[in-house]
Amino acid sequence: MTQTLLTPSIIAKEALLALENNLVMANLVHRDFSPEFQQKAGATVTIRKPATFAASAFSTTVAAQEVVESSVQVVLDKFYDISAAITSQELTLNVSDFRTQVLDPMMRAHAQNVDYQIFQAVYKTFAGHARATATTAVIGDLVNLVAQLDLQKVPPSERRVVLNPITYARYAPLDAVLHADKRGSPLTINEYSIGRMFGADWYMDQNVPTYTSLVLDAAGAMSGAAAAGATAATISALTNAEVVAAGDVFKVVGSDKGYLIVTGGTVGSTVCVITFSPGFDGAIADTAVVTFQKTSKNNLAFHKNAIALVSAPLAPYLGGVNSSVETYKGISCRVAFDGDTSAKTNRISVDMLFGVKTLDKELGARFFDYG
Questions:
Q1: pLDDT tens-digit map of 329-346
Q2: Average pLDDT, integer, range 122-150
Q3: Domains in the chain, ordered, with CATH?
Q4: Nearest residue to 287 (alpha-carbon basis) of 233, 217, 242, 245
Q5: In a 3-state reduction of DSSP, which class is residue 148?
Q6: Which region, left, alpha or beta, applies to residue 75 given φ > 0 means left and ψ of -120 to 50 means alpha?
Q7: CA geometry: angle 196, 202, 206, nearest 5 deg
């Protein structure tokens, strides 16, 4: 039987297939690709955002709107490598065996890192939020999360919810969750797909982060009334020396929306001045109760176009290094072989360059679980 020589190109193609099969979060977000070679860590690329329109009342003639695709800049600041020593015997394996013994473990590690980096880049950028019941899990918690997306006017198609393993374990015994896999079809590998319910596709991801808050009080109060559109307020009835930090979120009586802290500070004399986004969607009364979210698991619900993962091909190595760059479904990786004749060893290297950015903060919401 003819033996297929394992070249960097063959291995890179197999590596991308293995990566695709192990990704969760990266398969659920908007993926873009920069075709320009010789990108390097820290480079900035520009990607297009989908066009948006607004409905207008018709009188005598239509008001034609231009199809304008806005753009956003993404920094390719995530450059990761996995290198491993391999034997000459392993290089003589067939493609299937080499993938099982070497590539699959390497690409599982890459997949875990890509998902982790996506979460770390975006989870503190969303203002909308809902919280789980502190003691007993009830299906209403999940319905309220989807309702938050509705309040934010998130399009009903391509909604995804990604849960921390502990959060999933709390809700898994509920009948609606237990049988969710009987509805719809999964978008990623079955091991991580929970199923479809309440108009969204639900998944479990081991990289869902824990949100850490330095706010000790669950609730404070508005110190003075605020007008609709206000993006600053003074919050009273807090504990001295606690810290309200950027990325914290709150809700206030008089509004169903969530708000994201832009600037906060250390509480003094039980008071803290904050700025936040978006602006209040209505007038807020003096002394209205303000509820902060405390340390908890930070699950995410979002539309596909809320988050962008952008990959770019690295330039092939120079100087005679045996390497190849391949791309599959918007993800690029570079594979290289080299050897050390003095130590009689070979080495395989698989590296990736990518960036992550929140495209639209209104298209996502956080689900806090204190369980």
A1: 888 889 888 877 776 778
A2: 92
A3: 213-294 (2.40.30.290)
A4: 233
A5: helix
A6: beta
A7: 155
